[in-house]
């Protein structure tokens, strides 16, 4: 017979290993996997009929610096060792500095320890007399302690107790036990990691739900607060307007001055409320874009008419390059107007001398609009903070007379532009060297989208300041 033919024994052994590996792969819960493994080892060893009766798994507890019993095979012999034991199984805890205990020795040295004498592995914490009684009751002759190692570090031990003498343990058996121990070490490691992950995952889930809840609350609050604030503010504004127009009688100079301040603040408040409403609607995906093919140059020309008045007031220029060309892009007229008013409004605010130029160019895919001013400029450091929510820059070089603003304008500009498949960017050669804000409008129509059910909201009016 050829030598390399599988004997029934090797087949059984392979089968035993295979079953064990399967348990390890299939079971992720730590307690469950160790119990299953310990039982399976004994069952498999039992089939191999090698006289193994009790298997114990003990693991290091790093925090408490002890070796703790974790699992015990569910066999008659195991029950018998416990019947007479003075301590319940899970209280058999050995401090890591009890070097004389063979469990600790196996653990620390990473070597297999063999004994015929139960106190070697049970004392402390169990008294020698009681350990001997346990051994007798279960009919154990020999116990072998195997270290469980992961990457050279001992994480625990396994005790295999049998009703035969040490000399009867074959090399093959020892190799098998070694292999079992390695597998168990791996299983313990895996399932421990997994248990950890499970805990973290469930904690994350709870946190996430809380965050989502808070986020909804914030959205609701924003919507409600903005709506409720807008109505009285609008009423205040119209009464102020009436007063200012002399409808309540002639005003003296001081009264007019105070009234104008009140009007300005009210308008700013309304602008802020509108901005917050717009943002909360954008963030909730409740803003619809009415995208049409439009001549961008013509559109800008129209928008500039109103803004020119303001530029003239400030004695700065506002002009459009390539006035007479036509460049078509796909955009939402209202949103585009808002974007441009925001950008030019900023330039007006931060430009004392010179003026503002709007430039339109196009390439294969986009129409590009740039708003170029000769104003305060933006330092390299500050450029990083642009386009963020409440992104007003807190710096000295930009102090302007009417420096009021919400710091929401550029954030909305970005949301709108990106919502229309474009990009926006800012650049500046530095402080007092002017700023350029550029954005793109696609020349191709947007992909057809299924209509979503949008809860209708009252239209938001653009307040120009
Ligand atoms: N053209 C510009 N020149 C200089 N700084 C600008 C310009 N546009 C925007 N900024 C800076 O970006 C900040 C944010 O702008 P924005 O979001 O429109 O808010 P707001 O106009 O309410 O201050 C401004 O406060 C200003 O510091
Ligand atoms: Mg602004």
UniProtKB/TrEMBL annotation:
It holds the Pfam family HATPase_c. Keywords: Kinase, Phosphoprotein, Transferase, Two-component regulatory system. Residues 224-445 form the Histidine kinase domain. Its EC number is 2.7.13.3. SUPFAM superfamilies: ATPase domain of HSP90 chaperone/DNA topoisomerase II/histidine kinase (SSF55874), GAF domain-like (SSF55781), Homodimeric domain of signal transducing histidine kinase (SSF47384). InterPro entries: GAF, GAF-like_dom_sf, HATPase_C_sf, HATPase_dom, His_kinase_dom, HisK_dim/P_dom, HisK_dim/P_sf, Sensor_HK_Regulatory. GO terms for molecular function: phosphorelay sensor kinase activity. It catalyses: ATP + protein L-histidine = ADP + protein N-phospho-L-histidine. It comes from the Bacteria. PROSITE patterns: HIS_KIN (PS50109). The keyword Transferase applies. This is histidine kinase.
């Amino acid at each position: 017979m050829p030598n390399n033919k599988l004997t029934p024994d090797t087949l059984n052994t392979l089968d035993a290993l295979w079953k064990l590996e399967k348990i390890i792969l299939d079971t992720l819960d730590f307690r469950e996997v160790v119990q299953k493994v310990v039982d399976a080892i004994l069952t498999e060893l039992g089939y191999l009929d090698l006289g193994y009766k009790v298997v114990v798994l003990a693991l290091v507890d790093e925090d408490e610096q002890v070796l703790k019993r974790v699992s015990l095979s569910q066999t008659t012999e195991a029950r018998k060792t416990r019947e007479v034991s003075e301590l319940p199984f899970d209280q058999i805890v050995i401090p890591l500095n009890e070097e004389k205990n063979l469990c600790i020795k196996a653990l620390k040295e990473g070597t297999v320890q063999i004994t015929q004498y139960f106190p070697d592995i049970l004392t402390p914490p169990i008294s020698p007399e009681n350990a001997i009684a346990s051994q007798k009751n279960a009919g154990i002759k020999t116990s072998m302690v195997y270290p469980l190692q992961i990457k050279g570090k001992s994480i625990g031990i396994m005790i295999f107790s049998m009703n035969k003498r040490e000399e009867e343990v074959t090399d093959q058996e020892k190799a098998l036990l070694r292999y079992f121990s390695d597998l168990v070490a791996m299983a313990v490691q895996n399932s421990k990691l997994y248990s950890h992950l499970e805990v973290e995952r469930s904690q994350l889930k709870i946190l996430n739900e809380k965050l989502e809840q808070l986020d909804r609350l914030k959205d609701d609050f924003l919507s409600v607060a903005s709506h409720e604030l807008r109505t009285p503010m609008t009423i205040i504004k119209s009464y102020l307007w009436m007063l200012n127009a002399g409808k309540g009688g002639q005003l003296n100079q001081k009264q007019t001055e105070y009234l104008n301040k009140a009007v300005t603040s009210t308008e700013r408040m309304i602008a802020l409320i509108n901005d917050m409403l717009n943002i909360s609607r954008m963030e909730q995906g409740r803003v619809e874009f009415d995208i049409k093919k439009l001549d961008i140059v013509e559109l800008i020309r129209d928008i500039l008419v109103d803004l020119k008045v303001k530029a003239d007031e400030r004695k700065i220029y506002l002009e459009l390059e390539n006035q007479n060309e036509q460049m078509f892009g796909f955009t939402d007229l209202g949103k585009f107007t808002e974007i441009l008013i925001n950008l030019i409004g900023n330039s007006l605010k931060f430009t004392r001398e010179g003026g503002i130029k709007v430039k339109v160019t196009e390439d294969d895919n986009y129409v590009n609009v740039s708003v170029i001013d000769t104003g305060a400029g933006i330092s390299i450091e500050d450029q990083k903070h642009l386009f963020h929510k409440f992104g007003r820059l807190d710096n000295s070089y930009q102090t302007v007379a009417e420096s009021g603003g919400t710091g929401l304008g550029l954030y909305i500009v970005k949301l709108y532009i990106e919502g229309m498949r474009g990009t926006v960017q800012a650049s500046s050669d530095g402080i007092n060297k002017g700023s350029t804000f550029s954005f793109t409008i696609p020349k191709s129509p947007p992909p057809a989208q299924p209509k979503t059910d949008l809860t209708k909201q009252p239209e938001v009016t653009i307040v120009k300041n």
